[in-house]
Structures are given as structure tokens and as C-alpha cells.
Design brief:
The protein is of the alpha/beta class. Helices cover 33% and strands 14% of the residues. Helix 1 crosses helix 7 and helix 3 packs parallel to helix 5.
């Protein structure tokens, strides 16, 4: 399968998902993610199923909507179930001749709250049943839409409104759930991680997911300037550091077992996790007023352990879309 595209200039100019003029926060990459998804499917009709999340709220404030394509909003927990129903309905209508036979893509999207936690049962069921749709999780590591509460995606030691940072308990105590390995264990044909800071890699992965006949899953990191506490100009810089520090490595999984890391060299130099963490106000307590070196060491050790685990599973791509 040929990679697509090779340059940003190759991306279609037409906007096929969400338009400008939405009400996402200044600097939020969720809108960019949605627009890139549309550019990954330039030659076929598609429709969105949108779980309750920031993207849904900010693009459909009544009586306005920023979407160019058919779009369905549902609750936090049932985006994958709704996508299953849409897929089955379309297939049946075409079988009965009620609508023309054509390749219509169904794309579901949800945040980490509606994916890692509340929606994982519906996602697991839809994948197990083999419905032909793509699920995209845009991961900002908390329930940002409802007040910055911790989720299964929130990193260790991060401040949220439900995991406040104090002297006794310095932020969230649990580590981030290994979502893609959980999804890959279902044996679906294709799933991958991606970053908003590597748009060509993201578009290529969405394209591959769309081309799969059956369920596919793309997990994209999307720093939240409100919840992570950084300047509005730094969203893509922070997302890039997540990749370069190996906190959020980019890789693909084929058929549940073939792992491919999207780096040109397995021994490429990495950014220390501290460089990634100190960009974020939600982790300020690890550096001020007294540096909590033991917690920083725990996080770095966890990142290194997860990377080594991934190396054991993966082979390296000769040609990376990142560089």
C-alpha cells in the first residue's frame, strides 16, 4: 500500500470535515486533528459519529454547526455502538436497494474520557463484532470538557481537579492505561498511535485505517492548553516532546501482533522526560518550590520500561513518515 501523502503541499485543499469558525480554545489541536482526518479521505463520502467531548461541544453550539459532512452526536459511552448501528444501517439500505451501492466510511471520534473509560465496553464490542468503521481517540489526558477531572489516560503525578497536587499526594497516583495494546489484543487488522505534531504521519495512518475492511483504531495525542497549563502557541511543541521523550511513542500494530515503530533508528537520541514535563503547568509541583526528583525518576523509569517493552514487540520501519 502506497504511503499518502509525502508532503504537506500534497494534502487536499478542500475542507471535508470541520470548518474554521468553531469555538475550540485558541491553540487547541482538536480542530486540526478533525480537519486532517477529512484530508485523509478525499475521494469518498464519509460521516462522523462524535462522542460527547470538547470537539463536539465547541463545533455545534446551537444553532450553529461547523461540520461539512453528516454528523451524529451521542453520549460519552456509546460512540462505537452508534457507529456500529450506522454501519449496519448503511449496509442494509444498500443491500435492499434503498440507496446506491457505494463505499461510505463511518468514522467515530471521542476523547480519552469517552474512550479509555466510559466508552471502552462499546469499543471492545464493536471491534469484536467486526464492524467496518474507524475509531479515533484524541487524547488530552483528562475529562477536559467537564472540568479537568482525571481519566485513565492521565499521566502519573499530573494535577487535575480530582487528583490535586499536595504534599501528601502529589497528583494522580496511577500510570496511563496502555490503550493501544488493549485495542491491539482484539486482533483487529490495523491500529496505530499518532501525534498532531506529525500531520503527515497522522494522515497516512488514518488513510490506512480507512482502507481496512473491518474495524480500525487510531490513538492521537492532543495536549490541552487549559488542562495541561501551557501557552496557546505551544500545543504542537508539547505534542512533539511527548513523542521525542518516548512518553507517547508512534507505532502501528497489524493483525494484533505485528508491531512497527515509526522511527528511523531504534537507538535515536531521546529527549529526557523532564524536558517534556517542565513545559506543563499541571506538573509544576514537581519542580517548585522543591524539586521532587524521586517522582521524576519514577516517571522516567516507567517511560524507559514501556519503551523496552515496545522494542521487544516491534520491528523498525526502513522509511519513517516523521523525518
Amino acid at each position: 500500500m502506497a504511503d499518502y501523502p509525502t508532503k504537506l503541499a500534497d494534502l487536499p485543499k478542500e475542507e471535508r470535515s470541520v470548518s474554521s469558525g468553531h469555538r475550540l480554545c485558541t491553540g487547541c489541536a482538536a480542530g486540526t486533528i478533525a480537519r486532517l482526518v477529512g484530508k485523509a479521505v478525499p475521494d469518498k463520502p464519509f460521516m462522523w459519529v462524535n462522542a460527547t467531548c470538547c470537539l463536539e461541544v465547541a463545533t455545534t453550539i446551537y444553532p450553529f454547526a461547523a461540520w461539512h459532512v453528516p454528523w451524529i452526536h451521542n453520549a460519552f459511552e456509546n460512540a462505537a455502538a452508534t457507529a456500529s448501528g450506522v454501519r449496519s444501517g448503511l449496509d442494509m439500505l444498500m443491500k435492499k436497494g434503498r440507496i446506491p451501492q457505494r463505499d461510505i466510511e463511518v468514522i467515530a471520534i471521542g476523547g480519552d474520557g469517552g474512550t479509555y473509560d466510559i466508552g471502552i465496553q462499546a469499543i471492545s464490542g464493536a471491534i469484536e463484532r467486526g464492524h467496518d468503521f474507524v475509531y479515533i481517540c484524541y487524547d488530552n489526558e483528562a475529562y477536559m470538557n467537564t472540568g479537568i477531572q482525571r481519566s485513565g489516560a492521565t499521566m502519573h503525578a499530573a494535577w487535575t481537579t480530582t487528583s490535586p497536587a499536595g504534599e501528601a499526594v502529589p497528583g494522580k497516583q496511577e500510570f496511563k492505561k496502555p490503550l493501544l495494546r488493549i485495542v491491539a489484543a482484539h486482533g483487529l487488522e490495523y491500529c496505530a498511535t499518532a501525534s498532531c505534531s506529525y500531520p503527515l504521519d497522522f494522515v497516512r495512518k488514518v488513510k490506512r485505517a480507512v482502507d481496512v475492511k473491518g474495524p480500525a483504531f487510531v490513538h492521537v495525542i492532543q495536549p490541552c492548553l487549559r488542562g495541561w497549563r501551557f501557552d496557546t502557541s505551544e500545543s504542537f511543541q508539547v505534542a512533539r516532546l511527548a513523542v521525542e521523550s518516548r512518553f507517547f511513542p508512534l507505532y502501528e500494530v497489524y493483525n494484533g501482533y505485528k508491531y512497527v515503530l515509526n522511527y528511523p533508528n531504534p537507538m535515536m537520541s531521546k529527549v529526557p522526560i523532564e524536558d517534556y514535563l517542565k513545559q506543563q503547568g499541571r506538573l509544576r509541583h514537581l519542580f517548585k518550590p522543591e524539586r521532587k526528583q524521586e517522582i521524576l525518576d519514577i516517571i522516567q523509569a516507567h517511560v524507559d520500561k514501556e519503551w523496552e517493552k515496545l522494542l521487544e514487540l516491534a520491528e523498525f520501519s526502513e522509511k519513517s513518515a516523521l523525518y
